[in-house]
Amino acid sequence: MTSTTSGTSAGATSGTAAAETAGPHGATTAVDTSTTAGKLEDLRLRMEQTHTPVGADAVRDLHAAGRMTARERILRLLDPGSFVEIDALARHRCTRFGMEDTRPLSDGVVTGYGTVEGRKVCVFSQDPTVFEGQLGEVYGDKVIKVLELALRTGTPLVGIYDGTGPRIREGVVTLAQYARIYRLQSQMSGVVPQVAVVTGTVRNGHVHGPALSDLVIMVDGQAELSLSDPEFTRSVIGEVTTGAEIGGPELHATTTGLAHAVVGAEDEALDLVADLLSRLPSNNRAFAPAEALGPGEGVRVPAAARPTTADATADARLGTDAADLPPEDRALDGLIPDSPAAPYDVRDLLSAVLDDGSFLELQPRFAPNVITGFGHVDGRSVGVVANQPTELAGCLDTRASDKAARFVRLCDAFSVPVLFVVDTPGFLPGRAEESAGTVLSSSKLIHAVAETTVGTVTLVTRKAFGSAYVAMGAKDLGVDMVFAWPTAQISVADAEDTTTAVYAQRIAEVREAEGVDAAEDLAAELEREIATTVVTPYLAAERGYVDAVIAPHATRGRLRDAFGLLERKLTENPARKHGNIPL
């Protein structure tokens, strides 16, 4: 990695040792290394080169495009002064195809560790100025070393991606390095959180790194992520396309679901990484983080409203008196429309029951009929899976099931309790959905919920019909606490379908004997009876499928108590290598 003058050099002849610190293209700077000061200067020059491994012009070009260097991204993410770099002086060893003439320091990736808000984090950042961020043998060794360090120390990993694939000139060794990285990432899955930030063009073997991560952030206007590029696509299948069409943030935010968030600038992406890490533990042996709450934060119940007697405690828990509660809680009593067909935005509910401003939605434009994200309840980090009645009436389709299942597994892997908010009429029917694999996708969600070991709480606000309700966290799927509002409709089917199924023959007989009008009147009467006696939360409560029917304004307090109780839940699944989730 460095060259020194031979014994016949002028410096050596006069008894003075000299070192030539080589630049990326062979340019050297002679340094007298016979003294400690000279050795320190030699080190300074070498480390200086790591900041501009292919020269200052490349850095200026990045800045002119509004982008950071690989190193700047790390320094922007980590706490000031905390970055400890690993293998800064590494260089590739390839001597073919003219590679021996270009050996920039760092070899195209910056690696190390530091802290984010005081917590240890391992990080690597691909450098697009060095061989377009392409992976070679030494580059791979550097990434593998920091991955192994993260796994060994139980430290979250952040990968910043900006590279176009393998370094073809280095040959088959790049495939071996990819395989080692993929294997490590797979072993790390569920052990330490992995967050990927895509800041530039990511192609070929590089793309699997983000896909194997837990959370993916893409920078709009910069990021592209696809296995092939437009030129290769055109040459192989004759299709003319663009990088944005086959790998842009719009595609991954709305169609593939790969991107959990799309942001407008690199600063935003790195701030979001810090926010996400604050909601997850460092590893699978730790518990979800909790925020210290100041006066008036969290439950939003003023001291004057707190009960002082047993009766008052019962009233407060049942929510029979909302007069002294904050307006956000009282507003919940009017959230559900009188018409079961009228939509409402479940985000309004989440804003009221979660700590102020704490909800961070993930994948907001992918399968918007189910909402996923992190929030806080009384300072505790929780995951949220909620049906969204404004989209497909809250029906679950294949994408929604996939989205919810993956998020539930992420929360369970890292001991983050889960809140399910249910208002779904069922799984979306139709040829397209069946062809897309709705049976497998819905089973995936059922499997994910059933195998959770973290604390789980379900809140049924309105429709909870059929197996879609089961998939969204029914009591006997293993959910710890199930609450229902009086507006809940928990049944195999809605009142209309139940009436048809139960009384079809009787209605037909009346139609034949007394006419259509009489039959319709009877059907309407029977439907009203079914709606008030069968499609309610009370039959489920009688059988213990619902733990409590609560007034909406009491929801925040109930969630606080439930998650507080479940904070250190102890549950183990049967011993096995792993389940066979229907992928």
UniProtKB/TrEMBL annotation:
Record-listed E.C. numbers: 6.4.1.3
Molecular-function GO term, any one: propionyl-CoA carboxylase activity
InterPro entries: AccD/PCCB, AcCoA_carboxyl_beta, ClpP/crotonase-like_dom_sf, COA_CT_C, COA_CT_N
Keyword vocabulary terms for this entry: Ligase
Boundaries of every CoA carboxyltransferase N-terminal domain copy: 29-292
Principal EC category: ligase
GO cellular component, one term: acetyl-CoA carboxylase complex
Region described as Disordered: 1-35
Low complexity bias (residue ranges): 1-23
Domain of life of the organism encoding this protein: Bacteria
Record domain CoA carboxyltransferase C-terminal: where: 327-576
Family affiliation: Belongs to the AccD/PCCB family.
Cross-referenced PANTHER family: PROPIONYL-COA CARBOXYLASE BETA CHAIN, PROPIONYL-COA CARBOXYLASE BETA CHAIN, MITOCHONDRIAL
Listed name of the protein: Propionyl-CoA carboxylase beta chain
Organism: Corynebacterium bovis DSM 20582 = CIP 54.80
